[in-house]
């Protein structure tokens, strides 16, 4: 497994395993505490695993947590997703930086997203399962959502949006979210 820093987002890492494939399918390690530790992260910090299943065109995000934020490891375990990270940490050297990835069940790559960054994705296949490993229990009172189509972010979503939650449809733009955070 190889760990690579993401240039556009300070503190973000992409973990790429080496799947072993044969006539049965494949096998790969999707989490390795030693590799995570070598990237400067605490592998024991993660306290919750979650899974979402989406159909082609579904968009989830852009989400982040207020307060202490939430760091997470994200992996598409089945299918393919277009994954987006936006750095919203005012003290970060990559503040307002954006990074885009295609995560897939074929590669099993995992993306580490630091606390204070917004995250979203769109399912590119008929079924896409996305796994999350989160560093603190979820508290809905801390949920923050940013409009996926905010022109300031200009995210190049690859497909028309077929479905999203009501919360995501009604999300404010980036300027409004940043203004709320300052007050």
UniProtKB/TrEMBL annotation:
Residues at the catalytic site: 63, 132
GO BP of this protein: dTDP-rhamnose biosynthetic process; polysaccharide biosynthetic process
A Gene Ontology cellular-component term: cytosol
Keyword annotations from UniProtKB, A to Z: Isomerase
Segments of this protein annotated with the region Disordered: 164-183
GO molecular function term, any single one: dTDP-4-dehydrorhamnose 3,5-epimerase activity
Coiled-coil segments: none
Keyword Cytoplasm: no
The keyword Isomerase is annotated on this UniProt entry: yes
Compositionally biased spans, kind Basic and acidic residues: 166-183
EC number: 5.1.3.13
Recorded family membership: Belongs to the dTDP-4-dehydrorhamnose 3,5-epimerase family.
Protein name from the UniProt record: dTDP-4-dehydrorhamnose 3,5-epimerase
